[in-house]
Amino acid sequence: MSVRPGMADLERAAVDLRGLLRARELADDVRYNVELAFEEIVSNIVRHGSPTGEIRVTIAFNGEIVLTFEDDGVPFDPREQVKRSAPTSLDEAAAGGFGLLLVGKITTGIRYERTRQHLNQLTLTFPMRPAEPRL
């Protein structure tokens, strides 16, 4: 799928993704995590990456869910960002800035590459099944 840089097209793409995930009959929490990460990454690309072309997103289902984002925006490797610790209270919590931390918690893998074509390529991996509850 392709997403034009802009929040209106993000909404359309999110609806398309939701339909695709529902057709796969994935568990609600798995679908929610994929949709949440998709919206976080695409909105960050639009807001901070200044892409001039479309954001290309591919999704693969091969024992796990793999989302790959490609854009021509400013180089940005989310793995190199300073790790923020989660606030211990609402008083410590500042609005914004925790999206990448959240994406790191709900994925099983994050890979970034700046391609020879000068594109950002970010790949997120998710389990096909919900995590087992911890006792």
Biggest sheet, open or closed, and with what strands and sense? 5 strands, antiparallel
Give the overall shape, derived from the CA principal axes: globular
Question: What share of residues is helical?
Answer: 25-40%
User: Which spans of ≥5 residues are poorly predicted at pLDDT below 50?
Assistant: none
- In whole angstroms, the N-to-C terminal distance is 39 Å
Overall number of strands = 5
The structural class is alpha+beta
Total DSSP helices: 3
What CATH calls the topology is: Heat Shock Protein 90
Key words describing this protein structure:
135 residues, Heat Shock Protein 90, alpha+beta, 3 helices
What does this structure look like?
- The chain has one domain: Heat Shock Protein 90 (2-Layer Sandwich), CATH 3.30.565.10.
- 35% of the residues lie in helices and 23% in strands.
- It has a 5-stranded antiparallel beta sheet, covered by helices on one side.
- The longest helix is centred in the N-terminal third of the chain and has 22 residues.
- The chain starts with a strand and ends in an 8-residue tail after the last strand.
- The mean pLDDT is 89.
